[in-house]
Structure formats: C-alpha cells, structure tokens
Amino acid sequence: MSFKLGLTGSIGMGKSTTAGLFAEEGAEIWDADAAVHRLYAAGGAAVAPIAEAFPEALADGAVSRDALRRIIATRPEALKIIEGIVHPLVRADRDAFADKSRAEITVYDIPLLFETGAQSEMDMTACVYVPYEEQRRRVLERGTMSAADFEHILDKQMPIQDKLDRADFTIRTTDLETARADVHTVLEEIRKRL
Q1: What is the DSSP-derived secondary structure letter of residue 113?
Q2: Which domains are assigned to the chain?
Q3: Which long-range contacts (CB under 8 A, 24 or more apart) does 171-178 make?
Q4: Per-residue pLDDT for 144 more than 90?
Q5: 33: DSSP letter
Q6: 2 assigned binding-site residue
Q7: Is 17 annotated as a binding residue?
C-alpha cells in the first residue's frame, strides 16, 4: 500500500511545479485538475450527467469549462449541482489510481483538499505557499485572468492560512531551490515513518 500525501495550496502558489519535484524524487502523482479534464472530455464520465443537468454546457461532445463558468455566474445553484456530479467521479478516479499505484509514496495534487474533506483519506498533507504579493504577480503574469477574477477565486477558496494550519508540512515555493529542499525534507520525514 502506497503512502498517500495530499498536496494543496492556492491559485498561483506553485502546486503543479511542486508535484513535478515530488515526481523527480520517485513519487507517483495523481492530479485532480487532470482528472476533471478527463471527465469533461468527449466520452468522459461527467459528460452525460452534466449534459442532462445543463445541455448548454456541451460543445463538440465535451463539457465546455467556459460554458460552465457562464452558467455558474448566472445561476447560483448551478455550482452545487455540478459539484454533486463531478466530486464523486473525481473521487472514483482517485480511488482507481490508488488501487493501481505501486510507488512507495503517492502524491495527490488536490486544490480543494480540505474543502472537499479529501484530507481524511490521506496519510499526511502538505501545503505550498508564497506570500500574497508573489501569488498575485504570478497569476496576473499568466495573462489568463484579471485582478478582479483573481480576487473572486481567492474569495471562494479556503484562506491559505487555514490550509497551512491544517497541513502537516509547508512547502515554500518562493524559488525552485527552496521548494526542492522542502520537498526533499518532506520525503525524508515520510520515509523515516515508513
């Protein structure tokens, strides 16, 4: 049975990069966002139930994230319905991955780890962190959202301090060397326990 480390953080804090550092050290990675992409793709398990609830969310046989955003913006109840469809499917995808994992340590990259209660299925948890100013700079530098969009996402997420307080480990992602050193420390600590 593989050791399960839940990895979380907030938008723009370097979670994907950190997951890559764990992979370099031999951990297997399951990515919640990638699972959602698979579920929304043509033939994915979320397509039919979302089409039933929101036919306008489909484009070319797949779920359109842009259409979902528009639906959620105009219909406050839509988010709960979508989560009710998607969260169990994501969990099933994660469980199937866990059943196949043969790595000593598996890292579960889950943005909403604490919000969805998924931390209860992990052996330990880690949260990536950079100060707010750096986080904001990184997100806006991508050019994919406005400052208002960024603040709107932050308002919907659990405050980073709450995540840090709940996590077993903090991984500082101010630069690659610091993040790599923190990842190494986390893995050493886990391997001691194993």
Answers
A1: T
A2: 1-27+104-194 (3.40.50.300), 34-102 (no CATH)
A3: 171/18, 171/126, 171/127, 171/128, 171/129, 172/128, 172/129, 172/130, 173/9, 173/13, 173/14, 173/17, 173/18, 173/128, 173/129, 173/130, 174/130, 174/131, 174/134, 176/17
A4: no
A5: H
A6: no
A7: yes
pTM value is 0.91
At residue 157, the pLDDT reads: 86
52 has pLDDT over 90: yes
Q: Annotated binding residue at 174?
A: no
Whether the per-residue pLDDT at 156 is higher than 90: the answer is no
125 marked as binding residue? no
Residue 13 counted as an annotated binding residue: yes
Longest C-alpha distance within the chain, in Å? Answer: 52
- Average pLDDT across the chain, whole number: 95
